[in-house]
Design brief:
It is built from 19 helices and three strands. By secondary structure, it is mainly alpha-helical. It has one domain. Strands 1-3-2 form a three-stranded antiparallel sheet, with no helix packed on it. The two termini are 39 Å apart. The N terminus is likely disordered.
């Protein structure tokens, strides 16, 4: 083991140093005045993971993460939080806000900066709800406006005596509808040339709503949300990292629990499309980092100058970006799949790790998103405050906040960089812990479990170093 680990450490060091010097330094030594060279952050991140790996091998001999384990919240607090009246009120407010957002996109100002919809969807919803899921657990199950509307329709149908049994959701389809819907959203955000156009956003909201409500009508609200609804599946995966969760009671009811950190990530995910879904979560953020670099802008410019017609140039750039996004997502999926196959080969024919390590990708997806978007949320979210008073761009001041002036200097570049690097490394250490715990649980012995994790360590180092490099490009 010592020789194998030494060889692996040498390989990981080479991986950290293999990036071009110009790439490793880009954005680090320029806008930031750091006390050490940028490449040391890459090597330091890889070293932390290697040390964590060694510690896990020595100290973590038995599985410690158990799905559903935890301490129930106080009974009084549970009654309040699980109250159907609270759900109706919160869901109703969320649905009302959804209607405001959609009507603002469809009929409000055509300027994205004067319209609430683009800023709210891409900042408050996409990043803000992600943070809520990490801190509070799966609050999206209550905030989801599509579910709120479907629940209201189902209630009205019951009052009128209309009822029908939904079709059974085909297990063979798995999460693939959610993969398509999530990819469509990130493609709109990252590929489409005018994603901030309110009218485009209105059509996108309409299309997503039709797909979601149609799926709920055919397969039932619960089955569709758990398998086909891109946002519900996305936020559901994110909420597994929270310390607040829920579990079924013996009487069939639900109770809220305070669970051991990371225990929700120990769930084995064998549904078809699970790896593809996590690959979209990871790959879209990675592509966003690449596409914001000066190197990428130069490639796009080289492509644009080949066309004399601006419309043709715009279409060519979108196709180029779309193809690149697909390639990045495929790269993430292939690297993970190969790593899992290698781990299976260590154990032998008895191993079936296809869905075992999916939970280890969730912390990586979270820290990729946080490291890339959290500072964006802190600064840009301020623009929502005046827009809430004037969502349609009609010079209203409904809440008295129309004159609010955002502070664009809240975060300093160095503070942002240190926070991003710290979050990125900690998240990958958590991913190692989850993967190691699952390997220990399913391998014949702790020694074999550790051997399966060599390739997972290499995978985590690749993701860590790659993530830091992407951050350095911006």
């Amino acid at each position: 083991m010592t020789r194998a680990l030494a060889a692996l450490c040498a390989l990981l060091g080479l991986m950290a140093l293999a990036l071009p010097a110009s790439a490793a330094a880009h954005g680090i030594g320029g806008i930031r005045d750091l006390p050490v060279p940028g490449w040391l952050f890459l090597v330091g991140g890889a070293t932390v993971l290697v040390i964590s790996f060694v510690a896990l091998g020595a100290l973590w001999k038995k599985p410690k993460l158990e799905v559903g384990a935890g301490r129930p919240l106080p009974e009084g607090l549970q009654r309040v939080l699980l109250s159907p009246y609270l759900r109706v009120v919160v869901s109703g407010l969320s649905l009302a806000l959804f209607i405001v957002i959609w009507t603002a996109a469809a009929f409000g100002s055509e300027r994205g900066s004067d319209n609430l919809a683009p800023t709210f969807v891409y900042i408050t919803f996409w990043v803000g709800v992600l943070v809520l899921q990490i801190v509070l657990g799966n609050v999206w199950s209550v905030l989801d406006p599509w579910r709120a509307a479907a629940d209201a329709v189902a209630w009205a149908a019951r009052q009128l005596g209309w009822s029908r049994e939904p079709r059974a959701y085909p297990a063979a389809i798995g999460l693939w509808p959610a993969v398509v819907l999530l990819f469509s959203f990130v493609a709109l955000e990252l590929v489409y040339s005018d994603a901030g156009d309110p009218r485009t956003l209105a059509w996108a909201i309409t299309a997503y709503s039709v797909a979601t409500w149609t799926g709920m009508a055919i397969f039932g609200r619960r089955d569709w949300r758990e398998n086909g609804d891109g946002f519900a599946v996305f936020f559901g995966f994110i909420s597994r990292a929270a310390v607040f969760g829920s579990r079924e009671r013996e009487d069939g009811g639900k109770e809220l629990i305070l669970r051991k950190p990371l225990s929700g990530l120990a769930r084995v995910e064998r549904r078809p499309g699970a790896v593809a879904f996590l690959a979209v979560m990871l790959g879209s953020v990675a592509f966003d980092g690449i596409s914001r670099s000066s190197w990428w802008f130069e490639r796009v410019y080289d492509l644009e100058v080949k066309f004399s017609d601006p419309t043709s140039a715009e279409r060519a750039v979108m196709l180029f970006n779309l193809a690149s996004l697909v390639l990045v997502v495929l790269f993430v999926a292939i690297v993970y799949t190969v790593s899992v196959k290698v781990a299976e080969g260590v154990v032998g024919e008895r191993a079936a790790f296809s869905g075992v390590f999916v939970g280890s990708l969730i912390p990586i997806a979270i820290v990729y998103a946080l490291s890339h978007y959290l500072s964006y949320l802190v600064v840009t979210q301020q623009f929502v405050i005046p827009l809430l008073s004037d969502p349609y761009g009609l010079d209203w001041n409904v809440l008295g906040t129309a004159g609010f002036q955002p502070n664009l200097t809240l975060l300093k570049p160095n503070t942002t960089w240190y926070t991003q690097v710290t979050v990125l490394v900690i998240g990958h250490v958590f991913a190692l812990i989850v993967a190691h715990d699952r390997a220990v649980a399913l391998s014949p012995s702790p020694r074999i479990a550790l051997r399966t994790q060599y390739v997972m360590l290499a995978l985590m180092v690749l993701y860590t170093v790659g993530g830091m490099w992407l951050l350095s490009l911006n």
